[in-house]
Amino acid sequence: MTDSNKTATLTVHGETYELPVHSPTAGPDVIDIRKLYGDAGVFTYDPGFTSTASCDSTITYIDGEKGELLHRGYPIDQLAEKSHFLEVCYLLLYGELPVAKDLETFETTITRHTMLHEQMQYFYRGFRRDAHPMAIMVGVVGAMSAFYHDSTDITDPHQREVASHRLIAKMPTIAAWAYKYHTGQPFVYPRNDLDYASNFLRMCFSVPAEEYEVNPILSRAMDRILTLHADHEQNASTSTVRLASSSGANPFACIAAGIACLWGPAHGGANQACLEMLEEIGSVDRIPEYIARAKDKNDPFRLMGFGHRVYKNFDPRAKVMKQSADEVLDLLGIENNPKLQVAKELEREALEDPYFAEKKLFPNVDFYSGIILEAMGFPTSMFTPIFALSRTVGWVSQWKEMIADPQNKIGRPRQLYLGETMRDYVDIENR
Ligand code: CMC
């Protein structure tokens, strides 16, 4: 934390308090209210954390006004174009781009941890076949704490490292097996000669009955999707992981909590909801009807894949995703994809509409990702599991940073209590 000499003055009930102000390396100054309750006897009120920094971090920075996303200082569009997912994982985890030898060691370590404990298959078999793959992932990742006892002691840096590697390495296998179980096909084991994205695609789409060649176009597109979702500073699921972990819970339990949070349609579940919405709209002539519904305060409908708490400009990930959608469909020879046409026209009409302009609502990462995933052959129910698989490295990096921070305290928000004050119990016959 960069301390400055700046202070903020707060007057409460006629008394004045000086509060320290911290200057970050980028972004707005932060007023430090940690001693406020002790000194002034008041809490602050910020449901949804719209103005509250819950931690300090050196991993990811977003400038929502400019539409800029940096991992350890590197812009996401450069990483998406020039880097690849495992290199970005290394960057997020260790703070710097790796030299060739370190990258090779890291890739080998991750590759060697991709298999699941054989007993975990039986755990899958306990689910109904029609279970949503996200439901399976929440359960299976939580169950990892029952399978990998030698990496649950969070006070041991070596165990933390092993848990991080296991999570990043096994998540593609866990997600692919959730899909296989859901479709009723046999589980496909990982293969160490394939890169991370190709291995995932093979575990999802190959069957024992015939040889499967991973299409390099799809593999590159999948790697880019993973890279674009890798981290996003203190979003809801990451904050969930940090809060769960603040009690000293084991890493697998914390990541399972993150997956559960990600599933919601306001967060990672938006990619599934967005594709379903594009399907429902069906043709460009119906767009005005849906735009009108999104603007109607009496209708709960929102344009999925639009709007963001932090971005008040284009989500830089959406720009890359849109370009990628064009490329993938083109390379696969899919012409005139109706959902892509509806998406592009919907984006154009919404951006011209004063409602969206005034509220600064732009397409987010989920707007175009579903179109690519569907073109690859994934059903909509797999979109959010793929988001979870990509975001695991972000959760793990933020978790590691938090555990290593000597200032780490259990997360325990306060409240503005508006309920009854103390009253006497009334016997049932007198109520
Ligand atoms: N369609 C129509 N109106 C919207 C939308 C939308 N998609 N998003 C926000 N608004 C309106 C909202 O009704 C509110 O209007 P008013 O000020 O008149 O009450 C205003 O814009 C501000 O919205 P908010 O809900 O207060 O903003 P928030 O920061 O709490 O919510 C959000 C952010 C992402 C949850 C929201 O924009 C949303 O629900 N979007 C659709 C779901 C979605 O695409 N989520 C993915 C987010 S990016 C990936 C990820 O994080 O996982």
SSE layout:
Elements: E1 3-12, E2 15-22, E3 30-31, H1 36-40, E4 60-63, E5 68-71, E6 74-75, H2 76-82, H3 85-94, H4 100-112, H5 120-125, H6 133-143, H7 157-183, H8 196-205, H9 216-228, H10 236-246, H11 251-262, H12 270-281, H13 287-295, H14 316-331, H15 338-352, H16 354-358, H17 366-376, H18 383-404
Antiparallel strand pairs: 1-2, 2-3, 4-5, 5-6
This protein binds carboxymethyl coenzyme *A.
Carboxymethyl coenzyme *A (CMC) is lined by residues 235, 266-268, 270, 294, 302-309, 359, 361, 364-366.
Structural class: mainly alpha
Bound ligands, named by name, code or SMILES: carboxymethyl coenzyme *A
Overall geometric form: globular
Task: Provide the low-confidence segments as ranges.
Answer: none
Q: Kindly state the number of beta strands.
A: 6
Largest sheet: 3 strands, antiparallel
- Classify the helix fraction into a percent range: 40-55%
Instruction: Give the radius of gyration.
Output: 23 Å
Number of helices: 18
How confident overall, as mean pLDDT? Answer: 94
Q: CA-to-CA gap between the ends? A: 56 Å
Order of helices and strands: EEEHEEEHHHHHHHHHHHHHHHHH
* Amount of beta strand: 5-15%
Q: Biggest sheet, strands in spatial order?
A: 1-2-3
